Automatic annotation (TrEMBL):
<feature type="domain" description="Phage tail fibre protein N-terminal">
    <location>
        <begin position="1"/>
        <end position="149"/>
    </location>
</feature>
<dbReference type="InterPro" id="IPR054075">
    <property type="entry name" value="Gp53-like_C"/>
</dbReference>
<protein>
    <submittedName>
        <fullName>Phage tail-collar fibre protein</fullName>
    </submittedName>
</protein>
<dbReference type="InterPro" id="IPR051934">
    <property type="entry name" value="Phage_Tail_Fiber_Structural"/>
</dbReference>
<dbReference type="InterPro" id="IPR022225">
    <property type="entry name" value="Phage_tail_fibre_N"/>
</dbReference>
<dbReference type="Pfam" id="PF12571">
    <property type="entry name" value="Phage_tail_fib"/>
</dbReference>
<dbReference type="Pfam" id="PF21882">
    <property type="entry name" value="Gp53-like_C"/>
</dbReference>
<feature type="domain" description="Putative tail fiber protein gp53-like C-terminal">
    <location>
        <begin position="431"/>
        <end position="512"/>
    </location>
</feature>
Length: 512
């Protein structure tokens, strides 16, 4: 056995066992010192009192050893006004008067000022081991107990550790890491002793403040207990390729159990803009909402550019292909020297308002086909089962229901403004409203010279001009009158003025 030691007494062990069974803490209240009845001796576990007690007082402190959790350290300071004897033994007493532990103490004289000419405070520390260290508590009378420097230092350190503002860290993580050994974090090689903010672990319960070691990392002293890790805890980052000079705040609310509660940290370096009048400085980022999103989500520049018509992607096609929904929002360049066919994705697979654009940059026609019962439309009542896109032409498709509504140079011929009837008798419309019509008719069978023609369509406003060309010899037509839906004329021989019968004539009429 060591020369000097502390041991639990049998009575102390019995008291401890009873407390454990009852689920109540072990309460230590006092410490006493004795002179061993004038001689050094070896205490044993059967002791129920000191050989000769010379002083008793309240404990100053009782705490667990940092490196050995089963060790308890008891401290007391004997005031300078008592003494005049040697200290050779000490005892720890429960609140019920049981001698819990007994100490063999190195023989030391405790002077007293009145008789020895000098005096001093006498500090005693006792270390003992118990299997129930976490259940041992100290009863303290704050009006009597004096705090040692070590106790004050420890107390202040513990209280400071409970504050939300923590000592800065060297660097902060940017991804999930292995919490062991030296490694590179945010572009910086960290070494043993560095403080690290760990905030990106897959298991968020493992986030927190750590000290790098060459083995498994340990949590920092100011953040290694639940009482020290509270909501709104902040820490500054000193270095790093991306996170240097940033400040992070723990935004996990409510009670936190360290190692169990998921911990989330938020960058608060620039603080927060007022909700009623936010001011975003620098280059704030926002996620880009999905295409065709119509919610009140913030629009990033990427979303705006895409909405303005800057397509999300470009595809080049030169062979027949059936498109998939991923082609909504794209422009397709059709580039081939031989005609090929492009089949559109089913309308049911695309979003309402989805756009697909085609540009024929090749030298051959490309044919566009809808899928299934879908249709191509210029107006709702005018649909097509296919569309030919000649070289140099374009078409944009907008999906609504089962119709792909078309616009572009390839569908101008289908638009009402460019409507035409291309036959022996027919017409052609222009966007200005001008209409050109043509056809033919034959004068009456009598020699009255009466000639009339019904126009293919009625001019909405007026017929401006008309001309008739006969298919006979020297003939002329006197056109009068011109109405919005018909022409009338007199057919005659231009040489004799004779009115002619059965004379055919071709007409061109212009109106609006």
């Amino acid at each position: 056995m060591a020369d000097f030691y502390t041991l639990l007494t049998n009575a102390g062990i019995a008291y401890e066992t009873a407390c454990k069974a009852a689920g109540v803490p072990i309460k230590l209240a006092q410490i006493s010192v004795g002179d061993g009845n004038g001689a050094v001796y070896n205490p044993d576990a059967t002791a129920k009192a000191l050989k000769r007690e010379v002083w008793r007082g309240p404990l100053n402190a009782l705490f667990q050893d940092e490196k050995n959790p089963s060790w308890l350290l008891a401290e007391v300071t004997i005031p300078p006004e008592v003494g005049g004897w040697y200290v050779r033994e000490a005892g720890l007493w429960t609140d019920t008067g049981v001698l819990y532990a007994i100490v063999k103490y190195p023989e030391s004289f405790k002077p007293v000022l009145a008789t020895s000419g000098s005096g001093k405070e006498f500090y005693i520390r006792s270390i003992f081991e118990t299997s129930n260290a976490s259940l041992v508590t100290l009863l303290i009378d704050d009006t009597v107990v004096k705090a040692t420097r070590a106790w004050v230092t420890g107390y202040v350190a513990d209280e400071l550790a409970k504050l939300d503002a923590k000592q800065s860290v060297r660097v902060a993580t940017t991804e999930n890491i292995t919490l062991s050994a030296a490694q590179t974090i945010d572009g910086l090689a960290v070494v043993a002793g560095d403080r690290i903010l760990v905030k990106n672990q897959t298991a968020a319960k493992d986030n927190g403040l750590y000290v790098v070691t060459n083995a498994a990392w340990v949590r920092t002293k100011d953040a290694d207990a639940s009482a020290k890790v509270t909501s709104a805890m902040t820490v500054s980052v000193e270095q790093g390729a991306t996170l240097a000079d940033t400040i992070w705040q723990l935004v996990t609310d409510g009670a936190i159990v360290l190692g169990t509660t998921a911990l989330a940290f938020q960058n608060v370096t620039q603080g927060f803009a007022p909700l009623n009048s936010p001011g975003f400085l620098g280059t704030p980022m926002a996620p880009t909402a999905p295409r065709f999103n119509v919610s009140n989500a913030l629009a990033s520049t990427e979303f705006v550019q895409r909405a303005l018509g800057n397509y999300g992607s470009v595809s080049v096609m030169s062979v027949s292909e059936t498109l998939t929904p991923q082609f909504f929002g794209r422009v397709l360049l059709l580039n081939s020297g031989t005609e090929f066919t492009v089949t559109l994705p089913p309308s049911s697979s695309g979003p309402m308002g989805g756009v697909i654009s085609f540009r024929n940059v090749g030298t051959a026609n490309a044919k566009l086909l809808p899928s299934g019962a879908d249709t191509l439309a210029v107006i709702a009542t005018r649909t097509q089962t296919s569309l030919v896109i000649p070289p140099g032409s374009s078409v944009d498709l907008v999906l609504q229901g089962t119709n792909y509504f078309m616009s572009g140079t390839s569908v101008l011929k289908l638009a009402t403004e460019f409507a035409a009837s291309l036959g022996y008798s027919g017409y052609k419309k222009e966007p200005s409203g001008l209409i050109t019509q043509w056809g033919s008719t034959v004068s009456s069978g009598t020699q009255s010279g009466n000639w009339s023609a019904t126009l293919p369509i009625t001019f909405p406003t007026a017929c401006l001009s008309a001309s008739i060309l006969g298919n006979g010899g020297a003939t002329t037509f006197s056109v009068l009158p011109m109405t919005t839906n018909a022409l009338m004329a007199t057919a005659m021989n231009s040489m004799t003025g004779e009115k002619l019968s059965n004379l055919g004539g071709f007409f061109i009429a212009v109106g609006y």
